[in-house]
Amino acid sequence: MIIRTSAIRLACICVLFTATIVGCTKRVDDKWTKMRPQVFSATGTVIYQGKPCGGATVMFESNSPDDKARGKVAIGHTDSAGFFRMKTFKEYEGVVAGPHRISVTKSEFLQNLPPNPDPTIDYPLIEKPLLPAKYKEFQTSGLTADVSPDGPNSFTLTLE
What we know:
alpha+beta; four-stranded antiparallel sheet
């Protein structure tokens, strides 16, 4: 009887595990997803002061003439080698085709405690930018990229 109960438990665990894996990895293709513009793989490297810039956030904003794609923002994060891979929609990796303006940010957050802090107060952190301010905004960064449906879409962003 003990062997049979253990076998039933094991079978139930296997079924639940399989259902979880299948359910969590399935692409969703509902009517909203189908309305999204097509995206294309885009990668690159951020270089700051002649070195790879790890820990930065890269954003591409589409300037496409296509109404479906215009204004779409893709985001990527650099690894320690300065490498990034862009994502526009959570489920799908890539960037809409066409011209883009780019912003790059990197910050550290510092504690902002008064001399005798009240332990019941959660003091806000102070953001300290680690890159020049002009790269934070699409309008001032001067960085652009043209994403092609034919690829390859690999970009080197050199910051001064």
